[in-house]
Amino acid sequence: MQLQERINAFVKLGEFLSQFSNEVITKKDNVEFNDLFFDGFKHQLKLAEEHNGWFTQENIRFSLKSWTETLTLSNLNKWLKPYDFQESDSKLIAIIMAGNIPLVGFHDFLTVLVTGHHVLVKQSSNDKHLLPYLAKYLEYAEPNFRGCISFTEERLENFEAVIATGSNNTARYFEYYFKGKPSIIRNNRNSVAVLTGNETLDDLKKLSEDIFRYYGLGCRNVSKLFVPKGYNFDVFFESVYHWHPIIEETKYANNYDYNKAVYLMSEFDMLENGFLMIKEDTSYASPIATLFYEYYEDIALLKEKLNVDSQQIQCIVSKGIFENEVPFGTTQKPQLWDYADSVNSVEFLISIS
């Protein structure tokens, strides 16, 4: 199978997903294999929400829309153009996926297949309905993918390299267990936003998307703010208020109530607006419904601190401060070349060809 054939198959998958990325699901006439897959995928969306209360239809649609916009011929060609693909024997690459947000492991899945390898997927039990169905669609879109994709719930065997994502504890286990194999091992990371106090209301409204999308469960969600000494949070609270319906979601509300009770009993100082608490804390990982913040006095010293702590940080959201900053409102819309933990998985997979 040639590279362009693999690319074309994912373009077809993007066209298929486009039918499900809006609030009203609309069947299109020009999408291949719709009669086989359209109704079945609607059912998988329902199962995914029933199985995992964090996977609301809104958040699943957001994920599908992001991939619809990503899986275009121009994007895929731009992503892969810099690399020299030598057609060679395919290796079996194992992927251990997280399950914190819908289709969180799809980029790894795509990267393994588009680089010409076979994939063995071990999914999280929290996100097990969508990807196998999409994999089956790919096998129809490009019959040469048949035999290249497999899923397992058992112990991984006979693979030649691995990409594994987990918590800090499981990452240490992965590093030991896979020490004899080429690997990419990912652990917990969080994203931060650096504010100067000069942001517009629109900037902060965009930032609220980075905070609340997926209930803050993703590593690209902003879990902490760095703000200048004396920062006034009134404008910030005003800018995020349009997210207040989130408190009507039972799982989020339960976390909000629990964490608020813990903070009050511990007599921690905090600010809150009925659906979000902000607390001064040096940690990067904040609980659900909570945003940590930390003051800074010198932006140069803050840059040094964040550089030292880079292994704990996925994204830095700011406006004209950092070289590799992510613009407000875009953390959950990464490009294909925005690699998790800044580890280039395409280069990794080409190196083991």
Automatic annotation (TrEMBL):
UniProt keyword list: NADP
One GO molecular-function entry: acyl-CoA dehydrogenase activity
Keyword Cell wall biogenesis/degradation present in the record's keywords: the answer is no
Cross-referenced SUPFAM superfamilies, in alphabetical order? ALDH-like
Q: Which organism is it from?
A: Seonamhaeicola sediminis
Designated name of the protein: Acyl-CoA reductase
Q: Is the keyword GTP-binding in the record?
A: no
Q: Which InterPro entries match?
A: Ald_DH/histidinol_DH, CoA_reduct_LuxC
| Origin: domain of life | Bacteria
For the biological process aspect of GO, one term held by this record is: bioluminescence
